[in-house]
Amino acid sequence: MFKRFNSKEDFKGTTPIKSSIQRGIKSKLVETFPKLELVIDELIPKKSQLTQIKCEDRIFLYALNGEVILFQHFDGPVVPSLRLIHKCPDAFPQVRVDRGAIKFVLSGANVMIPGLTSAGGNLPEDIGKDEYVIIMAEGKGAPAAIGLTKMTSKEMIETNKGIGIENVHHLGDNLWKTILD
């Protein structure tokens, strides 16, 4: 999603978010990721001011204190950025790819199912289709990417080939490099 994103060149305007809309965003995040309920007020404090940044290709970024912590494509769900995920990685569903897949994930490639089902990979059984998951790398402690599942974990295990997760945002992509003044 952020391969052609040129950060500040693609910005069309910024708007402070009303507190009511900010509460709605927080509740949608907790609804999507229930484990966030315990830490959501630490990640996005009640008295803080979120800023919405409108970008090309109908992408909306949400920044807090100059740091992009959420993004949204058109009318899709609000998705946490890796900067937010690194603050509380255990609050999100996680999968792990084997060592052979790490360089491909970090270059923006989609996650192939064999990288999840091999000895170094880990694919929990409760992952559904069209869910956002955190992609961990074998032997590494920090999340490497966030992706959208293309099928359930059961279907991935049964087929054991093809694309399992669409890579949406990864370390080193243009969203990760975006620094706001």
TrEMBL record:
Signal peptide: none annotated. One of its GO terms (molecular function) is RNA binding. PROSITE patterns: PUA. GO terms for biological process: formation of translation preinitiation complex; nuclear-transcribed mRNA catabolic process, nonsense-mediated decay; ribosome biogenesis. Its main location: cytoplasm. It is found in: Cytoplasm. Keywords: Cytoplasm. One of its GO terms (cellular component) is cytosol. InterPro entries: MCT-1/Tma20, Pre-PUA, PUA, PUA-like_sf, Uncharacterised_CHP00451. Residues 93-172 form the PUA domain. SMART domains: PUA (SM00359). Gene3D superfamilies: 3.10.400.20. Belongs to the TMA20 family. Involved in translation. This is Translation machinery-associated protein 20. It comes from Schizosaccharomyces cryophilus (strain OY26 / ATCC MYA-4695 / CBS 11777 / NBRC 106824 / NRRL Y48691) (Fission yeast).
